[in-house]
Amino acid sequence: MNGMLRKWPVIAWYVCVVIGLVITLLPFVYAAAGSLKPNHLMFSELSPFTLKAFLPGTDPVAYFNIFEKGFGRAILNTLFVSCTSVVIGLLVNSTAGFAFARFRFHGDKVLFAIVLVTFAVPAEAIAIPLFIMIRGLGWFDSFTALIVPGIANGLVIFLYRQFFAGVPNELIEAARVDGLSWWRIYWTICMPLAKPVTIGAGLLLFVFQWESYLWPLIAAPSPEHHLIQVALGRFSTEFSAIWNEQFAASTIAGALPLVFIFIYQKQFVSALTGVDLK
Amino acid sequence: MLGLFLFKIYPIFLAIWESFFIESFGVGGGKIFVGWENFTLLWNDFVFWRSVRATAILTVVINPVQISLALALALLLQRRSRHIRLIRSLFLLPIGIALPIATIIWGLMLNPNDGLINAMLGIFGISRQPFLTSEDQAIWAIVAIATWKGVAFWMLFLLAGLEDIPRQLYEAVRIDGANWLQRHRYVTLPMLRRTILFVLVADTATNFVLVVPMIILTQGGPRQSTNVLMYEAYRTGFLFQDFGKSMAIVTILTSITMLVIALQVLFLGDRRGANK
Question: Using CB atoms within 10 A as the burial measure, which of A116, A265, B87, B227 is most buried?
């Protein structure tokens, strides 16, 4: 009796965890399983409900079909936009972070405060004003409109600044005495040290572009500029009855960032939230 | 070099600037000055007030739901246990899933006729629910989708906050004979206050602009029940090409957001701040 009493919190804990995990994982399992089935099976397995709905099928036809419907184009577009944003974004934001950490200039505090404010402003809130601005610049419906606004990232600047501010002063001083330019110090000393930040920040920039929806939807509406989430959204309205293809498209769009995030989970989470996972 | 950074920060700068000032005075991208006309138009617009109502309902429901669930999950995952790292990783998976994907998959699962959820409810003898097609349930379905996607993210901050609470505090109240509920009431909540406030503010700001499920699934319907201000701004700008009015809505939404956040900080902030 006493033993049971001590055990029940543990049992309750397991029950809660299992319920939570079922809710969390249900859409993953169902969508991935459904993407490998012919469309009619999606419906017959559910009326009445059978557990077969969660077992993966063996028919990849949905995957072939979505590529015939131009999904490949969206994937390539997104890879192009994401990778360009990562490369340029890492360079620009790390140099900015370096400047904030190492130089004292007029108004640096105010400027850095503005950087901090920017990551409190949700992307959706500025999407419509930004659209007016982009249209004024003549960038409407182009890859420039998709890439440029996403490059400067307050959070990434912040991450680099925090890291560079922690680099020992002696190291920098020694390099200065040796006659290294600030550019060389940044590139050959500080950046190699900042590798964990670069992994997290790069992933952040990549995922930001890969998962953006509202901005590409309004800024570049023509199909040749479609990014993956926009293509997915269009798909779900245009072919709303073809469930297996929607699941296949979702699986592809979801799997790629998830793989990276899973590998570099620690760096990603600490970049995104400042929380160190143990 | 400096000029370069200034130029690169400039877009963010300008974007914020624009979202606060310019928008309400331009009509359709033209440069005609109309003063407060966009705002007076909205004041007399029945649809706009419906939209304010939908936003208020969503805000009042979604933020407490998400934060209590995030806190519950954080308490759950705080426990040291075998496989805890794997369990945590699995709970974190939705963070990596884009909201449009989550929306589409859940949208199909919540399909009133052929959806998985209704099929599973059927086992328990519960009749089919209309979910997103019902005026009463649509907003709840959207809350569920956004919560599924968002809760793990907010949980991370709370989990980190929990792990910073010194063990001795719990030992002390345990010796005093406090039960589980009292331990959390008198130790966890006060110690976690700042973290909870931060999560509340950030979550509120995020949910005020929650719009993807409305664009993909409901188009603001049925009968405007999910037509939140952000969707109304999107609809006015991009479906009706009335950017002046759209910007006015964004400006109002931004003001409401800041007001609500200010109130949250005022009422829940650290009133003993002076002692610290």
Answer: B227
pLDDT in tens, B13-50: 554 454 444 444 444 444 455 566 777 778 888 899 99
Q: How many domains does chain B have?
A: 1
Domains observed in chain A: 2-59 (no CATH), 69-238 (1.10.3720.10)
B54 three-state secondary structure: helix
Residue B196 domain-assigned (yes or no): yes
Please name the residue ranges forming H helices in chain A. 2-34, 39-44, 61-68, 71-102, 108-118, 123-136, 143-151, 154-165, 169-177, 182-184, 191-193, 195-210, 214-219, 228-238, 243-263, 265-273
User: Hey, what amino acid is at A162?
Assistant: Q
Global pTM? 0.88
How many angstroms separate the CA of residue A246 from the nearest CA in chain B? 8
Average pLDDT, chain B: 83
Name residues whose C-beta falls within 8 Å of residue A197's C-beta, 6 or more positions apart in sequence.
A159, A160, A163, A271
- Cis before A48? omega within 30: yes
Residue B97 is assigned to a structural domain of this protein: yes
pLDDT tens, chain A, 278 aa long: 455 566 788 888 999 999 999 999 999 999 999 899 888 888 888 877 878 888 888 888 889 889 888 889 999 999 999 999 999 999 988 988 898 888 887 777 887 887 777 777 777 877 887 888 788 788 898 998 899 888 888 889 889 999 999 999 899 899 989 988 888 999 999 999 999 899 999 999 999 999 999 999 999 888 889 999 999 998 888 888 888 999 999 999 999 999 988 888 888 888 888 777 65
B126 touching chain A per CB within 8 A = no
Closest-CA distance, A170 to chain B, in angstroms, reads: 23
Task: Return the pLDDT at A59.
Answer: 85
Q: What gap in Å lies between CA B260 and CA B229, rounded to an integer? A: 15
CATH number at residue B138: 1.10.3720.10
Q: Which domain holds residue B191?
A: 59-227
Nearest Cα residue in chain A from B22: A129
Position B273 in a domain = no
What gap in Å lies between CA A103 and CA B94, rounded to an integer?
A: 40
CB contact under 8 A, B81 and A254: no
B248 shares contact with chain A (CB less than 8 Å): no
Distance to chain B for A59, nearest Cα, Å: 19
Token match 């020694």: residue? A174
Whole-number pLDDT of residue A192 = 94
* CA–CA dist A250, A5 (Å, integer): 46
> CA separation (Å) from B153 to A148, B68, B71, B206?
27, 13, 11, 12
- B residues 18..57 contacting A (CB < 8 A): 18-19, 22-23, 26, 29
**With helix as H, strand as E and coil as C, how does B133-151 read?**
HCCCCHHHHHHHHHHHHHH
Amino acid at B272: R
Closest CA to A99 of A143, A41, A158: A158
